[in-house]
Amino acid sequence: MSSISKSVLSRTSAKVDKELRASHAGETGAVWIYRGALTAEFLVSLVSFSRSPHKNNKALSVKAFASEHLQTEKTHLSIFENEMPTFRGSYMLLLWMIAGFLTGFIPRILGHNWFFYTIYCVEYFVDQHYEAQCCLLENVDPLPSEVLRKFRQCQQDEQSHRDEAYQAMTSTPSFTMKLWGKIVGKGSAAAVAVAKLI
Ligand SMILES: [Fe+2]
Ligand SMILES: [Fe+2]
């Protein structure tokens, strides 16, 4: 192989490596979002049970939603860890775990609609990010087999999560919730930019 084609290949690999690292960091964060939400759900259920044992219907639906989504996010994480070409993981995984945990924990403490709206905002961002990545990967040659198909597979699940979260809301988001949603979106974009590098 000539030195020119070797350097083209390494640039291509670097491009794929960055995208795999960013999405692996994102899926790690996603797992921890639901762990944070389930932790908050448990704490809230302890308080609401002691106040009124009949007020747990909605809390159960958050628990079911978060538990089901947690399983899907674990599957996504496993795809990146076991089924993708080898890549360098982010050096900041601990930070993505903590950020994810708080992104699930804080809104769940604030209420059901806060939680569902946050998930809607996160998944809205993730869907757009996967779309941008897929457009980029479509032009990578040679692209390791199956990479694009697996990105699309994860994207479809995120779209369902986004729509389920939106449908689970029982009222329109307040001004403060929208402000929080914008912070979550900007924070996610910043996290992707950092994870691509570090
Ligand atoms: Fe995911
Ligand atoms: Fe998701």
UniProtKB/TrEMBL annotation:
Gene Ontology biological-process entries: ubiquinone biosynthetic process
CDD domains on file: DMQH (cd01042)
Keywords, comma-separated and alphabetical: Membrane, Transmembrane, Transmembrane helix, Ubiquinone
Protein name (record): Demethoxyubiquinone hydroxylase family protein
Residue ranges of the TM segments: 91-110
Domain of life: Bacteria
Species this chain originates from: Alteromonas hispanica
Pfam family, one: COQ7
GO terms for MF: 3-demethoxyubiquinol 3-hydroxylase activity
